[in-house]
Here is the input.
Amino acid sequence: MAAVAFSILAAFGFASSAVLSRQGLQAVFPLPGVMVSLIFSFLFTGIMALLFAFSDIGSIPQAALLWILGLGIVNYFGGRTQNFLSVNLIGASRASLFVASQAPFAALFAVAFTGESLHLLVGLGTAGVVGGLIFASGTSILEGWRGDKIFVLGYLMALGAGASYGATNVMAKQTLEVFDSPLVITMLSMLVGMLVLAPLVGASTAHSGVHREKGQGFSKNLWSLRWVALAGIASGIAVISLYFAVQRADVVVISPIVSSSPLITLFLAHVFLTRLERVTKRLLFGALLAVGGVVLVVIGNQL
Here is the structure.
């Protein structure tokens, strides 16, 4: 049950991060926002590692370094960057639904590459998650294509983020089998992510600046960066919890539970982002269907 608890905490962390980043990205461009969030994720995780896993820092096996490098690239360059871009384009509510596609991606990668097996109920639950995503999206993709193709790009980036996060779950499991220290693995992979993203973020900032519109005040931009920083801390908590979860259970069980985060995102968006986003009944029902799939996954894990 500890793995389930960590998975639920990760879902809350990712949902909170999506809503906070949506608030912050009103005045900050996505790529600088990604870097700010990652810096604060790294600082939070670094403090946790120094407090609770200091002895592990000096005992990292060479075999784990390549996995950590891959985690940093896939999770933060492929996952968080596309996630922030999609949130900026289509909003936290819709983006989170497609980012939750990490569940079937993770199941596919885990079964194909690590030999994990799928219980019938776990498979049905994963299908429920996918069904919820499809129902929630409805005709909005087609409508977005007709009205604004940038809208479709947001969906594709959210789907790409889901695929990256699904791969990350499997890679984290493999890394933990080589080096059993979730905190140090998280900290070092975030450092890799910052180093990989730095040139891209620097070029983006030099080209467009950090202000969304000419004449925007420094104080407003700084306030927005505070939201992005909080999103980074929430995401750091989520990643740590996710790694502790996959340390204790199979990826095919953990990923669908983490993918329940859209329901939490919808609730938080309804409460805090009413000015920016509209939560429809279709979105809500789709999220509930996805969470029903998560319940099946939990039950299947106990059989």
